[in-house]
Amino acid sequence: MQYQLSQDLQNCIDECLQCYQTCVREAMNHCLEKGGKHVEPTHFRLMMSCAEICQTAANFMLSGSDFHTRICTACAEVCDACAQSCEQVGEMEDCMQACRRCAQSCRQMARSGSGSTQQSSGVNAPM
Ligand SMILES: [Cu+2]
Prior knowledge:
The chain has 127 residues and is mainly α.
């Protein structure tokens, strides 16, 4: 039997992993190759920070950590900042969109605050 995460969690994990992938891929390929504004510290650092926190948020949700809502709150902030930076720099559509979607999803997750990731799992089902 497969362990089932709630749909909300699974969606948020998917958005985080998508954003993580997009940030690393764009930073390490698109931005590095384009150079100029794309490798300015503020932008590049945000790309890396965003990738990092998205991966971490996904891991926290996958692990069932009760701290996931706090990581998601931070993740949404970093994603917003990265999306904004991408918009300013330009030619960063994919990343901007991934960041915006992830920010929205994480904010929702943080707000719904579904205190525990365990609630709809069935694993802790009463005896
Ligand atoms: Cu860039």
